[in-house]
Known about the structure:
Blueprint: E1 9-17, H1 18-21, E2 27-29, E3 37-42, E4 52-56, H2 64-73, E5 78-82, E6 92-95, H3 98-109, E7 117-122, H4 127-142, E8 147-150, E9 153-157, E10 160-162, H5 171-183, E11 188-192, H6 195-199, E12 210-213, H7 221-224, H8 227-243, E13 247-251, H9 255-260, E14 266-270, E15 279-282, E16 288-293, E17 296-301, H10 307-324, H11 331-335, E18 346-347, E19 355-358, H12 363-374, E20 381-385, H13 395-406, E21 409-412, H14 422-430, E22 440-443, H15 447-456, E23 463-467, E24 474-477, E25 480-483, H16 486-497
Parallel strand pairs: 3-4, 4-5, 5-6, 7-11, 7-12, 8-11, 12-13, 13-14, 14-15, 19-23, 20-21, 20-23, 21-22
Antiparallel strand pairs: 1-3, 2-6, 8-9, 9-10, 15-16, 16-17, 18-19, 24-25
Amino acid sequence: MSNQWQPHAAELAEGLSLIELSDGLGHLDLGDSEDVMVMGVCDDSRHAMPGYAMLCLPRSEGKATQFAESAKEQGAIAIISVGVSVDTDLPHLHLESIAEAGLLLRRMFKTEQASTHFYGITGTDGKTSVAWMLREALARYQSAPIWSSGTLGWMRSSNNICDIGNTTPSLLTMHAMLNAACQEGVHAVVSEISSHGIAQGRIAGLNFKTAIWTNMGHDHLQDHGGYEPYLATKAGFISDCAAHGGSVVANADHADIRERAPESTNWYGHGLDRDDVNLGWEQELPGLLRLSCAGEEVVIEDIPIGDFHAENVACVALTLMVSMGIELQALPELLTGITAPPGRMQDVAAGYGQVFIDYAHTPEALERCLKAARKLVRNRLIVVFGCGGERDREKRPQMGGIAAEFADAVWITSDNPRGELPAVIASEIEAGMAQPYRVELHLQLDREQAIAEAVEVLAEGDILVIAGKGHEAYMEVCGRRMPWSDAEVAERYLHRKHPGSGFDGERLCA
């Protein structure tokens, strides 16, 4: 699969009768046709091809007829609508629910009996890191390729990644990925499951054999109508997995998760001497993790920096024990030296150890990131961060307060302002900082200039954390995504500050 693959259409291995495909599902209107052979399926009319069926999903309401006509012009021979009205003279299968669409796609791709182990990871933070680490650990254990999907894309290996547009891609893409995994004999697929993906039914028809709930915090609340609906959305995914016989692994240190997770949940939590968890964890030193289960202990060495990564590794450890039956004593071999994904407490200038970029863009993630950095700092902790525009506004003052509490110097700057004024976002961040300010505060809306200024003042023993964007390779302003890399900018100014050091300043964020 090339990195140019577009997740909007999929060709079927062989033509399938629309009558047979629709058996027992929805209402089929063939019009003047006796039957048609479906050769492929698309969910974007621009990717329709001769012989394809066009899938009109609920979000196309009001434009479904227009999309159907466009697909017909491209050669589509049938329309499959899901909960939306479509006026078309093509053979038309109408499905009432997204659940029916999921069943139809399983039938189309012939994956009803798929043996691929689907892991689903939900939570406000930690999804990408847990997915990365679990894929790496399973690949070590299986000595075979393991796939993952999420914020970083559809990953067949760390060197073979293609963009899928969203953390949890479209329903069609999810089913096409399962089909591809089955065709290539991939044992497991690890998928990040976002709240949007759950709410919009992008995982309908997929049977997750293991569901993981990492944590709960504030993000995307504006899209769900508040925290409670957001929490309920994630809880619904976890409960559905358990109801269908899947195993559940969850973080015991979040009261809301404790309250909403099913009784059969397997728990991990901070602390070694606990009787309310299946696996306890403790980090005595950076890079070292101690795990405890049923009175036994093991030590995992050389893990990524940060308590939050220690917690992520503990989550992976329990998942391996639950899903694969791996014994506690076998975990050090599988987890020692495990890596973290790009942009998660990433040392952008190896050898300096002074500048880290992190994807932290929620209050909870920023606090954990700065606490991790505080354990490493010998002098001042400096942070450069902002908040995204047209997103949860409640978190802005919270993140300002956290930065003021844990850092010594703060640069408030821009971070994907989208259609909002960066100055307004910055003022809402600053509003959460108690006055008189304990920290040295700077307002610099030009993100490159903010990073440059922070790098310039770095002294021996200081640590700089550039938070919010992590691996992201763009800055989104007024509907446009412009090329951007926190790592590249930081490296450029470090190179200017330390010329002739042997650091070439050319390495980009992977």
